[in-house]
Amino acid sequence: MNRERCTSLRSAHPTISPTQRSESMATIVFYEKPGCANNARQKSLLLEAGHELIVRNLLETRWTADELRAFFGERPVSEWFNRAAPWVKSGEIVPEALDERTALVLMLEDPLLIRRPLLQVGDRREAGFDAERIHGWIGLAPAAAEVSNLEQCRRTEHCPTPAREDTA
Fold it and tell me: 68: number of CA atoms within 13 Å, CB side?
């Protein structure tokens, strides 16, 4: 996604003007699954806090194992996975039973398995949207403390997989 779309996302939040931004606000590379309602709420919270977003499609990014691994830090392999992914929900993939190498191979084959969003500010990378952790890192608007779990999908059925754009 380009900066033009980010500007339109920011304009949806008229309470934050560029002059209200503090020097400590961050430019965040935000990897999302397009159409994900939770990712939309997460972006909204970040914008309300005055951050700038560079939004990218998680599913279309051509990851290497090393690039993807950098987002997970010291977290156990089981915390790298999107618990709403069809293969995880069905029990066909059990994250707790996987080693690091196998987990990365599976995620490179099917990016829906990757815990979302992936966030990058400078050299630091994070996976998932733990509001307390994010607030301690880059800051969130006070209203974020009142928000329920922003990682757990509220849908009862699987989201349709977005159509992949033809890059040719």
Answer: 25
Q: Which residues are known to be catalytic? A: 36
Q: What is the pLDDT of residues 45-99, one digit of tens each?
A: 999 999 999 999 999 999 999 999 999 999 999 999 999 999 999 999 999 999 9
The sign of the dihedral angle between the CA atoms of 91, 158, 39, 30 is positive
Alpha carbon distance 135, 137 (integer Å): 5
Per the rule left: phi > 0, alpha: psi between -120 and 50, beta: everything else, 60 is alpha
Non-local (6+) Cβ contacts of 131 within 8 A are 45, 140, 144, 145, 147, 150
The reported pTM is 0.76
